[in-house]
């Protein structure tokens, strides 16, 4: 795997509290990488370590195979969960200020900013005061100043917080566009739906340790439990008998429309699936069968509870 970022055996303590405990992970280049975990798991501490805001007690962080130093921080764009805009400044002036801090000349900074303000539909707010911005608009400004210098690694902590569904979708589209243009994106979130929509890989942190990592599709498939939703037209009363001993009913049939009934069943062994489908087709007029793959929300809960 071609990794842009490698976190190797990182440990960080605060007095008696171990915020990170021998944590390692690999972020594939060109991916959208979800960093998940319950509150207090260590996600924000890890992001601070990656950005060299906090120095680990042991372990190291590599960017493109080299130890991360202050010089490489310009290759990273970081939007923390805590928002930091100066309320009395004008929006455009503040955005230019941040762009200059990241090494852009004023003229180039303004050109890029004007384009981004147009893209995110906040161009009319250029000369307004920051304190007039809604939470969502302020989020857009911080998103823009995070990505403006076109870093190869972007890190967002709860990027969808404060957005309505329309603007959250707009931001997702921009994140995917940045990935398609070559950036690698890490984002920490509690929004499992967003993880399924845009993440290629995830790491789940719990009690300061990495307890689950990998491609989203692979993790969901590995957590499958052979549960299926079926739609049948007849044989409702004899369904259980037709399934025995290969499968069991987990949710009894219920009528939905035009005599169709939906039920959920559990098939004990993979090898039995074709036989069960054949029986349902012959005796119950099977109309459809759909495997119920666990959602990332299900997997998150099971992994944290230790039942995965």
Layout of strands and helices, then pairs:
Blueprint: E1 3-14, E2 17-28, E3 32-36, H1 43-50, E4 58-63, E5 66-67, E6 76-79, H2 91-101, H3 106-119, H4 135-147, E7 153-157, H5 165-180, E8 184-188, H6 192-198, E9 201-206, E10 209-215, H7 216-222, E11 227-232, H8 239-243, E12 247-257, E13 260-267, H9 273-283, E14 286-291, H10 296-305
Parallel strand pairs: 3-8, 3-9, 6-7, 7-8
Antiparallel strand pairs: 1-2, 1-4, 4-5, 9-10, 11-13, 11-14, 12-13
Helix pairs in contact: 2-3, 2-4
Largest sheet: 6 strands, mixed
| CATH topology call of the largest domain | Rossmann fold
**End-to-end distance:** 25 Å
CATH-scheme architecture of the largest domain: 3-Layer(aba) Sandwich
Name of the CATH first level of the largest domain: Alpha Beta
Instruction: Give the overall shape.
Output: elongated
Mean pLDDT: 91
Over all CA atoms, what is the radius of gyration? 24 Å
The structure class reads: alpha/beta
CATH superfamily membership of the largest domain, which one? P-loop containing nucleotide triphosphate hydrolases
Strand content: 25-35%
Total of DSSP H or I helical runs spanning 4+ residues: 10
Task: State the share of residues found in helices, binned by percent.
Answer: 25-40%
Walkthrough of the structure:
- The chain is of the alpha/beta class.
- The protein has 2 domains: 3-221, Rossmann fold, CATH 3.40.50.300; 225-292, Alpha-Beta Plaits (2-Layer Sandwich).
- Helix content is 33%, strand content 31%.
- It is built from 10 helices and 14 strands.
- The protein has helices at 43-50, 91-101, 106-119, 135-147, 165-180, 192-198, 216-222, 239-243, 273-283, 296-305; strands at residues 3-14, 17-28, 32-36, 58-63, 66-67, 76-79, 153-157, 184-188, 201-206, 209-215, 227-232, 247-257, 260-267, 286-291.
- β1 (3-14) and β2 (17-28) form a beta hairpin.
- α2 packs across α3.
- The relative contact order is 0.13.
- The model has no long low-confidence stretch (mean pLDDT 91).
